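pasting input
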Amino acid sequence: MAAVVLQMIPTKESVEPDDRQLVEQIRQGDDGAFETLVRRKTSKVYGLCYRVIGNGEDAKDISQLVFLKLWENLEKYDPTYAFDTWLYRMVTNVAIDFMRNKQSRDNAVNSNLRLVKTSVDPEQTVSVQRKEVESVFNAVSNVLSPKQKTIFVMSEMEDLRSSEIAKILGCRESTVRNHLFNARKLMQQQLKRRFPEYARLWEGSR
Amino acid sequence: MMTCQQFRANLQPGTTDAALLEHLRHCDACLDHAMGIDPDLFFRSIGGEELVPPGGVDAFVGDVMSQVRVRSAETSLAPHHANVWRRLAIAATVAAAVTSATLAYRFEHRAPSQNVASHAAQTRVSVPHPAILATKSFVETYSSHNATIVEVPNDGSDAKVVMIFDDTLPADL
Protein backbone atom coordinates (compact mmCIF):
# COMPACT_ATOMS: atom_id res chain seq x y z
CA MET A 1 0.00 0.00 0.00
CA ALA A 2 2.84 2.33 0.93
CA ALA A 3 4.45 1.81 -2.47
CA VAL A 4 1.21 2.76 -4.23
CA VAL A 5 0.92 5.97 -2.21
CA LEU A 6 4.50 6.95 -3.09
CA GLN A 7 3.81 6.48 -6.77
CA MET A 8 0.84 8.83 -6.54
CA ILE A 9 2.92 11.69 -5.13
CA PRO A 10 3.86 13.77 -8.16
CA THR A 11 7.53 14.60 -8.69
CA LYS A 12 8.71 18.14 -9.37
CA GLU A 13 9.27 17.32 -13.04
CA SER A 14 5.76 16.04 -13.57
CA VAL A 15 4.20 19.09 -11.88
CA GLU A 16 6.03 21.74 -13.88
CA PRO A 17 5.05 21.76 -17.56
CA ASP A 18 7.77 22.45 -20.09
CA ASP A 19 7.76 25.55 -22.30
CA ARG A 20 5.76 23.95 -25.11
CA GLN A 21 3.10 22.70 -22.70
CA LEU A 22 2.84 26.16 -21.18
CA VAL A 23 2.40 27.69 -24.62
CA GLU A 24 -0.39 25.21 -25.33
CA GLN A 25 -2.12 26.14 -22.07
CA ILE A 26 -1.80 29.86 -22.87
CA ARG A 27 -3.33 29.30 -26.29
CA GLN A 28 -6.29 27.72 -24.54
CA GLY A 29 -6.75 30.95 -22.55
CA ASP A 30 -4.83 30.17 -19.35
CA ASP A 31 -3.40 33.48 -18.10
CA GLY A 32 -1.76 31.73 -15.16
CA ALA A 33 0.34 29.70 -17.59
CA PHE A 34 1.57 32.91 -19.19
CA GLU A 35 2.54 34.29 -15.80
CA THR A 36 4.52 31.11 -15.12
CA LEU A 37 6.28 31.45 -18.47
CA VAL A 38 7.16 35.11 -17.82
CA ARG A 39 8.52 34.26 -14.38
CA ARG A 40 10.56 31.40 -15.83
CA LYS A 41 12.11 33.47 -18.64
CA THR A 42 12.54 36.84 -16.92
CA SER A 43 16.17 36.32 -15.96
CA LYS A 44 17.15 35.10 -19.44
CA VAL A 45 15.36 37.87 -21.29
CA TYR A 46 16.42 40.62 -18.92
CA GLY A 47 20.01 39.34 -18.80
CA LEU A 48 20.41 39.41 -22.57
CA CYS A 49 18.74 42.82 -22.82
CA TYR A 50 20.94 44.22 -20.06
CA ARG A 51 24.16 42.93 -21.64
CA VAL A 52 23.23 44.32 -25.05
CA ILE A 53 21.75 47.64 -23.88
CA GLY A 54 24.01 48.24 -20.88
CA ASN A 55 21.39 50.07 -18.84
CA GLY A 56 19.16 48.44 -16.20
CA GLU A 57 16.04 50.61 -16.63
CA ASP A 58 16.11 50.49 -20.44
CA ALA A 59 16.72 46.74 -20.29
CA LYS A 60 13.70 46.34 -17.99
CA ASP A 61 11.44 48.32 -20.35
CA ILE A 62 12.66 46.38 -23.37
CA SER A 63 12.19 43.06 -21.54
CA GLN A 64 8.58 43.97 -20.74
CA LEU A 65 8.03 44.91 -24.36
CA VAL A 66 9.43 41.52 -25.39
CA PHE A 67 6.95 39.71 -23.15
CA LEU A 68 4.05 41.75 -24.51
CA LYS A 69 5.12 40.90 -28.04
CA LEU A 70 5.43 37.30 -26.97
CA TRP A 71 1.86 37.31 -25.69
CA GLU A 72 0.56 38.95 -28.86
CA ASN A 73 2.41 36.59 -31.21
CA LEU A 74 2.11 33.31 -29.36
CA GLU A 75 -0.24 31.94 -32.03
CA LYS A 76 2.63 32.16 -34.52
CA TYR A 77 4.96 29.93 -32.50
CA ASP A 78 5.63 26.60 -34.16
CA PRO A 79 6.15 23.96 -31.42
CA THR A 80 8.44 21.92 -33.69
CA TYR A 81 11.16 24.53 -32.97
CA ALA A 82 12.84 25.20 -29.64
CA PHE A 83 10.92 27.82 -27.66
CA ASP A 84 14.08 29.55 -26.45
CA THR A 85 15.31 30.08 -30.03
CA TRP A 86 12.01 31.78 -30.89
CA LEU A 87 12.12 33.84 -27.70
CA TYR A 88 15.75 34.89 -28.27
CA ARG A 89 14.89 35.95 -31.81
CA MET A 90 12.21 38.24 -30.40
CA VAL A 91 14.60 39.63 -27.78
CA THR A 92 17.37 40.32 -30.30
CA ASN A 93 14.99 41.99 -32.76
CA VAL A 94 13.58 44.34 -30.14
CA ALA A 95 16.97 45.04 -28.53
CA ILE A 96 18.71 45.70 -31.86
CA ASP A 97 15.93 48.09 -32.91
CA PHE A 98 16.24 49.91 -29.61
CA MET A 99 20.04 50.12 -29.92
CA ARG A 100 19.83 51.48 -33.47
CA ASN A 101 17.48 54.23 -32.39
CA LYS A 102 19.57 54.96 -29.32
CA GLN A 103 22.80 55.09 -31.32
CA SER A 104 21.39 57.61 -33.75
CA ARG A 105 20.26 59.78 -30.81
CA ASP A 106 23.58 59.42 -28.97
CA ASN A 107 25.62 60.16 -32.08
CA ALA A 108 23.88 63.50 -32.37
CA VAL A 109 24.63 64.34 -28.74
CA ASN A 110 28.15 62.93 -28.42
CA SER A 111 29.62 63.91 -31.76
CA ASN A 112 31.74 66.63 -30.10
CA LEU A 113 32.92 64.60 -27.13
CA ARG A 114 36.50 63.38 -27.11
CA LEU A 115 37.68 60.02 -25.92
CA VAL A 116 38.97 60.29 -22.36
CA LYS A 117 42.24 58.43 -21.84
CA THR A 118 43.02 56.80 -18.54
CA SER A 119 46.04 57.91 -16.57
CA VAL A 120 47.22 54.37 -15.86
CA ASP A 121 50.74 53.47 -16.90
CA PRO A 122 50.53 50.86 -19.70
CA GLU A 123 53.48 48.96 -18.19
CA GLN A 124 51.83 48.71 -14.82
CA THR A 125 50.69 45.19 -13.93
CA VAL A 126 47.06 45.07 -12.87
CA SER A 127 44.94 42.55 -11.15
CA VAL A 128 41.73 41.95 -13.09
CA GLN A 129 38.56 42.49 -11.09
CA ARG A 130 35.25 41.19 -12.40
CA LYS A 131 33.30 44.37 -11.63
CA GLU A 132 35.85 46.37 -13.55
CA VAL A 133 35.56 44.03 -16.49
CA GLU A 134 31.86 44.80 -16.67
CA SER A 135 32.39 48.56 -16.74
CA VAL A 136 35.22 48.14 -19.27
CA PHE A 137 32.90 46.11 -21.45
CA ASN A 138 30.16 48.76 -21.28
CA ALA A 139 32.72 51.42 -22.22
CA VAL A 140 34.40 49.69 -25.15
CA SER A 141 31.43 47.83 -26.59
CA ASN A 142 29.89 51.10 -27.79
CA VAL A 143 32.04 50.86 -30.90
CA LEU A 144 30.18 47.73 -31.98
CA SER A 145 27.11 47.82 -34.15
CA PRO A 146 23.92 46.63 -32.42
CA LYS A 147 24.08 43.34 -34.31
CA GLN A 148 27.79 42.79 -33.55
CA LYS A 149 27.19 43.51 -29.88
CA THR A 150 24.20 41.17 -29.73
CA ILE A 151 26.20 38.36 -31.33
CA PHE A 152 29.18 39.02 -29.06
CA VAL A 153 26.99 38.92 -25.95
CA MET A 154 25.21 35.74 -27.02
CA SER A 155 28.50 34.01 -27.81
CA GLU A 156 30.73 35.20 -24.97
CA MET A 157 28.31 35.73 -22.12
CA GLU A 158 25.31 33.53 -22.88
CA ASP A 159 27.60 30.71 -24.13
CA LEU A 160 25.53 30.05 -27.25
CA ARG A 161 27.18 28.27 -30.18
CA SER A 162 27.51 29.98 -33.57
CA SER A 163 24.97 27.57 -35.05
CA GLU A 164 22.41 28.50 -32.38
CA ILE A 165 23.04 32.22 -32.87
CA ALA A 166 22.63 31.78 -36.62
CA LYS A 167 19.24 30.12 -36.04
CA ILE A 168 18.13 32.91 -33.71
CA LEU A 169 19.15 35.69 -36.09
CA GLY A 170 18.09 33.83 -39.22
CA CYS A 171 21.49 34.14 -40.89
CA ARG A 172 24.38 31.86 -41.88
CA GLU A 173 26.86 30.54 -39.37
CA SER A 174 29.72 32.09 -41.34
CA THR A 175 28.05 35.49 -40.95
CA VAL A 176 27.95 34.99 -37.19
CA ARG A 177 31.64 34.03 -37.13
CA ASN A 178 32.53 37.10 -39.22
CA HIS A 179 30.64 39.38 -36.85
CA LEU A 180 32.38 37.75 -33.89
CA PHE A 181 35.81 38.14 -35.47
CA ASN A 182 35.22 41.82 -36.24
CA ALA A 183 33.71 42.46 -32.81
CA ARG A 184 36.75 41.01 -31.02
CA LYS A 185 39.10 43.03 -33.20
CA LEU A 186 37.24 46.28 -32.55
CA MET A 187 37.07 45.60 -28.82
CA GLN A 188 40.83 44.99 -28.62
CA GLN A 189 41.51 48.23 -30.51
CA GLN A 190 39.31 50.10 -28.07
CA LEU A 191 40.98 48.44 -25.11
CA LYS A 192 44.39 49.57 -26.40
CA ARG A 193 43.21 53.13 -26.72
CA ARG A 194 41.19 53.47 -23.55
CA PHE A 195 42.40 50.76 -21.19
CA PRO A 196 46.01 50.00 -22.11
CA GLU A 197 46.61 48.22 -18.81
CA TYR A 198 44.17 45.48 -19.90
CA ALA A 199 45.27 45.47 -23.52
CA ARG A 200 48.71 44.31 -22.39
CA LEU A 201 47.14 40.98 -21.46
CA TRP A 202 46.49 40.25 -25.15
CA GLU A 203 49.89 41.38 -26.30
CA GLY A 204 51.64 39.42 -23.57
CA SER A 205 49.95 36.17 -24.42
CA ARG A 206 50.38 36.24 -28.22
CA MET B 1 31.87 23.90 -8.29
CA MET B 2 35.39 22.75 -9.12
CA THR B 3 38.39 23.83 -7.07
CA CYS B 4 40.92 26.46 -8.20
CA GLN B 5 43.49 23.71 -8.64
CA GLN B 6 41.23 21.71 -10.92
CA PHE B 7 40.37 24.85 -12.88
CA ARG B 8 43.98 25.82 -13.46
CA ALA B 9 44.95 22.29 -14.39
CA ASN B 10 42.17 21.90 -16.97
CA LEU B 11 41.92 25.36 -18.51
CA GLN B 12 42.70 25.44 -22.22
CA PRO B 13 42.55 28.41 -24.63
CA GLY B 14 39.12 28.75 -26.26
CA THR B 15 37.40 26.55 -23.71
CA THR B 16 33.62 26.15 -23.84
CA ASP B 17 33.46 23.79 -20.88
CA ALA B 18 30.50 24.88 -18.75
CA ALA B 19 32.12 23.86 -15.45
CA LEU B 20 35.32 25.78 -16.21
CA LEU B 21 33.37 28.86 -17.27
CA GLU B 22 31.24 28.69 -14.14
CA HIS B 23 34.35 28.67 -11.97
CA LEU B 24 35.87 31.51 -13.96
CA ARG B 25 32.74 33.61 -13.41
CA HIS B 26 32.80 33.17 -9.66
CA CYS B 27 36.49 33.23 -8.73
CA ASP B 28 38.43 36.49 -8.92
CA ALA B 29 41.62 34.72 -7.92
CA CYS B 30 41.54 32.54 -11.06
CA LEU B 31 40.60 35.35 -13.42
CA ASP B 32 44.15 36.68 -13.64
CA HIS B 33 45.48 33.19 -14.31
CA ALA B 34 42.81 32.59 -17.00
CA MET B 35 43.70 35.84 -18.75
CA GLY B 36 47.29 34.65 -19.06
CA ILE B 37 46.08 31.49 -20.82
CA ASP B 38 43.38 33.02 -23.03
CA PRO B 39 42.70 36.80 -23.08
CA ASP B 40 39.35 36.21 -24.79
CA LEU B 41 38.18 34.97 -21.40
CA PHE B 42 38.36 38.61 -20.26
CA PHE B 43 34.80 39.36 -21.31
CA ARG B 44 33.56 35.80 -20.90
CA SER B 45 34.12 36.20 -17.16
CA ILE B 46 31.11 38.54 -16.87
CA GLY B 47 28.58 36.15 -18.37
CA GLY B 48 26.51 33.40 -16.88
CA GLU B 49 25.19 35.45 -13.99
CA GLU B 50 21.45 35.37 -13.21
CA LEU B 51 20.40 38.98 -13.56
CA VAL B 52 17.33 40.39 -11.86
CA PRO B 53 15.47 43.45 -13.19
CA PRO B 54 15.36 46.56 -10.97
CA GLY B 55 12.55 46.16 -8.42
CA GLY B 56 12.74 42.38 -8.45
CA VAL B 57 11.17 39.56 -10.44
CA ASP B 58 7.76 39.76 -8.72
CA ALA B 59 7.29 43.43 -9.54
CA PHE B 60 8.49 42.81 -13.08
CA VAL B 61 6.06 39.93 -13.65
CA GLY B 62 3.24 41.98 -12.06
CA ASP B 63 3.91 44.86 -14.47
CA VAL B 64 3.91 42.53 -17.47
CA MET B 65 0.67 40.84 -16.42
CA SER B 66 -1.13 44.15 -15.81
CA GLN B 67 -0.12 45.31 -19.30
CA VAL B 68 -1.31 42.00 -20.73
CA ARG B 69 -4.69 42.49 -19.03
CA VAL B 70 -4.99 45.97 -20.52
CA ARG B 71 -4.21 44.59 -23.98
CA SER B 72 -6.70 41.77 -23.42
CA ALA B 73 -9.41 44.29 -22.56
CA GLU B 74 -8.57 46.28 -25.70
CA THR B 75 -8.70 43.13 -27.80
CA SER B 76 -12.07 42.10 -26.36
CA LEU B 77 -13.50 45.44 -27.54
CA ALA B 78 -11.94 44.97 -30.94
CA PRO B 79 -14.55 42.59 -32.53
CA HIS B 80 -16.64 45.67 -33.38
CA HIS B 81 -13.87 46.54 -35.75
CA ALA B 82 -14.40 44.04 -38.52
CA ASN B 83 -11.55 42.41 -40.30
CA VAL B 84 -9.57 44.99 -42.28
CA TRP B 85 -9.75 42.99 -45.53
CA ARG B 86 -13.46 42.49 -45.14
CA ARG B 87 -13.98 46.20 -44.62
CA LEU B 88 -11.86 46.99 -47.67
CA ALA B 89 -13.89 44.55 -49.77
CA ILE B 90 -17.16 46.15 -48.66
CA ALA B 91 -15.83 49.65 -49.43
CA ALA B 92 -14.64 48.54 -52.88
CA THR B 93 -18.04 46.98 -53.68
CA VAL B 94 -19.92 50.12 -52.63
CA ALA B 95 -17.58 52.32 -54.68
CA ALA B 96 -18.00 50.10 -57.76
CA ALA B 97 -21.82 50.16 -57.41
CA VAL B 98 -21.95 53.96 -57.10
CA THR B 99 -19.64 54.41 -60.11
CA SER B 100 -21.64 52.08 -62.35
CA ALA B 101 -24.97 53.68 -61.30
CA THR B 102 -23.59 57.13 -62.12
CA LEU B 103 -22.35 56.00 -65.54
CA ALA B 104 -25.67 54.33 -66.37
CA TYR B 105 -27.64 57.45 -65.35
CA ARG B 106 -25.42 59.70 -67.49
CA PHE B 107 -25.71 57.41 -70.50
CA GLU B 108 -29.50 57.26 -70.27
CA HIS B 109 -29.86 61.04 -70.13
CA ARG B 110 -27.33 61.77 -72.84
CA ALA B 111 -28.69 59.41 -75.59
CA PRO B 112 -32.01 61.30 -76.46
CA SER B 113 -30.32 64.70 -76.83
CA GLN B 114 -27.74 63.14 -79.17
CA ASN B 115 -30.62 61.72 -81.36
CA VAL B 116 -32.35 65.12 -81.48
CA ALA B 117 -29.14 66.82 -82.50
CA SER B 118 -28.48 64.41 -85.38
CA HIS B 119 -32.12 64.65 -86.52
CA ALA B 120 -31.89 68.45 -86.51
CA ALA B 121 -28.76 68.29 -88.64
CA GLN B 122 -30.51 66.04 -91.18
CA THR B 123 -33.54 68.41 -91.38
CA ARG B 124 -31.28 71.37 -91.87
CA VAL B 125 -29.66 69.68 -94.87
CA SER B 126 -32.92 68.55 -96.54
CA VAL B 127 -35.02 71.76 -96.23
CA PRO B 128 -34.40 74.28 -99.04
CA HIS B 129 -33.54 77.87 -98.09
CA PRO B 130 -36.73 80.12 -97.93
CA ALA B 131 -35.04 82.82 -100.05
CA ILE B 132 -34.62 80.32 -102.94
CA LEU B 133 -38.30 79.34 -102.70
CA ALA B 134 -39.35 82.97 -102.88
CA THR B 135 -37.63 83.52 -106.26
CA LYS B 136 -39.54 80.66 -107.88
CA SER B 137 -42.85 81.36 -109.57
CA PHE B 138 -45.80 80.20 -107.54
CA VAL B 139 -48.67 78.29 -109.39
CA GLU B 140 -52.02 78.39 -107.61
CA THR B 141 -54.20 76.73 -110.30
CA TYR B 142 -53.18 74.44 -113.06
CA SER B 143 -55.02 72.92 -116.06
CA SER B 144 -53.60 71.01 -118.99
CA HIS B 145 -54.63 68.23 -121.36
CA ASN B 146 -51.03 66.97 -121.89
CA ALA B 147 -50.02 66.74 -118.25
CA THR B 148 -49.95 63.67 -116.05
CA ILE B 149 -50.85 64.46 -112.43
CA VAL B 150 -49.96 62.02 -109.71
CA GLU B 151 -51.19 62.54 -106.18
CA VAL B 152 -48.80 61.05 -103.57
CA PRO B 153 -50.74 59.31 -100.81
CA ASN B 154 -50.00 60.89 -97.41
CA ASP B 155 -50.32 59.81 -93.80
CA GLY B 156 -53.40 61.92 -93.04
CA SER B 157 -51.75 65.33 -92.57
CA ASP B 158 -53.13 68.49 -94.20
CA ALA B 159 -50.32 68.97 -96.69
CA LYS B 160 -50.92 67.36 -100.08
CA VAL B 161 -48.11 66.37 -102.40
CA VAL B 162 -48.92 66.38 -106.08
CA MET B 163 -46.45 65.47 -108.88
CA ILE B 164 -47.06 67.02 -112.32
CA PHE B 165 -45.37 65.73 -115.49
CA ASP B 166 -45.88 68.29 -118.30
CA ASP B 167 -43.41 69.02 -121.16
CA THR B 168 -44.88 72.50 -121.79
CA LEU B 169 -43.96 73.85 -118.30
CA PRO B 170 -40.64 75.74 -117.85
CA ALA B 171 -37.71 73.52 -116.78
CA ASP B 172 -36.89 75.56 -113.62
CA LEU B 173 -40.40 75.47 -112.14
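fyi Residues 4-44 of chain B form one domain.
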